[in-house]
UniProtKB/TrEMBL annotation:
Gene: rmlC
Record's protein name: dTDP-4-dehydrorhamnose 3,5-epimerase
Pathway: Carbohydrate biosynthesis; dTDP-L-rhamnose biosynthesis
Top enzyme category: isomerase
Family: Belongs to the dTDP-4-dehydrorhamnose 3,5-epimerase family.
Domain of life: Bacteria
Gene3D superfamilies associated with the record: Jelly Rolls (2.60.120.10)
Amino acid sequence: MQVIDTELADVKILEPKVFKDERGFFFESFNQLKFAQAIGRDVVFVQDNHSRSSKGVLRGLHYQTARPQDKLVRVLRGEVFDVVVDLRHGSPTWGRWEGHLLSEQNKRQLWIPGGFAHGFLAMSEDAEVAYKVTEYWYPEHERTLLWRDPDLAIVWPLTGQVLCSPKDELGGLFADFDVSNFSY
């Protein structure tokens, strides 16, 4: 596995070694020991999530104010533009965002530690995303940043109409983000 540091502190791209031949391919999608070495600490995943989205569906930018979730995200089918925003006040990359293409072709995984808002845009006709999390979902702690917040100025590769949930369409602004009510 190749570990690629990103411009955001502690976010990493994990690129597996893929073995291909005329039968298809094989790769290790998760190995606890190698993963801990890659990110520099042990984690325990408590839940696996799987979503399917049609082209133009945008999910996020989600985070939890307490009991944050570390996430290991990968695409099983299709392609997404995956975005993270650093919400860790005091971090050298606080308030910055970064986007990465994750696809069934590149088989890359994105490690997102707690303290980041996360979302993605489905770029292919259908996209299936699987992710492991280190904490359960607590609806009372869930919040959403507005995906089109002018202060964040995220450059989404939009090619048509965006479809969001009502919750995501009503996300809060980064300027109103309350650092005193946020733990990571």
